[in-house]
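Write out a sequence, fold above all:
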Amino acid sequence: MSDVPLSLFAVHLSGGVVAGPWAVGGFVGAAALLAAACWRLPERDIPRVGVLSAAFFVASSISLPLGGLTSVHPILNGLVGACLGRRAPLAIAVGLTLHLFLLAHGGLDSLGLNVCIMALPALGVAAVHPALRRLGLRAFTRGTLLGGGAVAGAAILNFLVLLLGGIEDWPTLARLVLLAHVPVMLIEGFLVGVMVSYVEKVKPDLLAS
C-alpha cells in the first residue's frame, strides 16, 4: 500500500500512470465521443456548452481534503450530462484541457482517458434522465441519483483503467478508489439534486430532454 501514489486516489488520472497503448486508445475513444457530440451541433447550443464547461472546470478545481492524506474533488459530470445530453463530452473535454494547460492538473498522455472516464458516465446520465422524468420522479430525486451515479461511474472506470492499463500492478486499488469517492458521491448527489430541482423550476429548457 505504501507504494501506491496518493494521486491515484483521484478520478483525474495523472500523467505517466498508464501504458502507451491505453493512452493512445484513450485519445481514439475521446475523438469518437467528441465527433459524435459535434455532429450537427446547432449554434444556439454553443453558449450552453460554454456555461457547463466553466461549471465543470470550476467545480473540479476545488480540492476536498480526505483524512489529511490525499484529496478528491467534485466532478459535476452528472449535471453536465443532464443539461447537455449527447453534447456533454464537449464541455468535459474543454474543462479537462483547461485543467491541463492552466493548472497542470493531469497529464497530456492521460487527457484522452480522462475525457472518456468522465464523459461516458455523463452520457449515461443523458440517456437515463429523460426516462426517470417520464416515470414521474421529482427533480431533486433524479438529480441526486444521477449526480452520485455519475461520480460512481467515473470512479469505477478510473479503477478499471488503472487495474488493466496501469504501468504498475495495484491489486487493492478498487476498494480504495471507491472508498475515497464515497463522500464525493454523497455530496455531489445532493448538490446535483438541488441544482436540477432549481433549474427545472426557473429554466427547464436547460435540461436535455
